[in-house]
# Entry
Amino acid sequence: QSALTQPPSASGSPGQSVAISCTGTNSDIGDYNYVSWYQQYPGKAPKLLIYEVNKRPSGVPDRFSGSKSGNTASLTVSGLQAEDEADYYCTSNADSQNFKFGGGTRLTVL
Amino acid sequence: QVQLVESGGGVVQPGTSLRLSCVASGYRFRTYGMHWVRQTPAKGLEWVAVIWHDGSKTYYGDSVRGRFTISRDDSKNTLYLQMNSLRVEDTALYYCARDFGVTDYKLDLWGQGTLVTVTS
# Structure
């Protein structure tokens, strides 16, 4: 099973918007609305940020949003803040036996 | 306090076994599915295994299937990962995580991780 493809890095200045992509196939992202995003700070455990493409758990700021087009999902961070500097991972599972993580994207706030 | 606490990691030789534990507190453990996920600097996050909330089903990632076994003891609010025939490439930080998903996996609570190092 192939992993999901993310750019290794992304960056933006405070106040700007940044989008991070996650590319899969028509057997996972393309076929199901089961995409999640996780945020991870160095030395900390991942935190669920987005699930089912565009839903936010309680407590996640609405600056974080998700979308999907074809085989590619995207996480957009609007109004970038210094505290958003972290690693971001996408996931998708088309079925119970195939749970994939993306390679991760390091977001830098300039 | 709602939390997960892993333990059992350590330094072991290739071919040996190790059992990880994850103790849950602050919520109704038996109503959630549970996962093990591992992380290395080189490979990032990798899904290891899942067990259904009622223990009826288990699934494994390709790299550990046949060597690792996930289980749970709801009377002890504890999740386990039995790791046999360990390989150097199993070296990683192992997290347990709670799953609130019904249709897909959604990991909303993670432990702090326990480090497993496999070296000769």
Summary: Chain B has no helices and eleven strands.
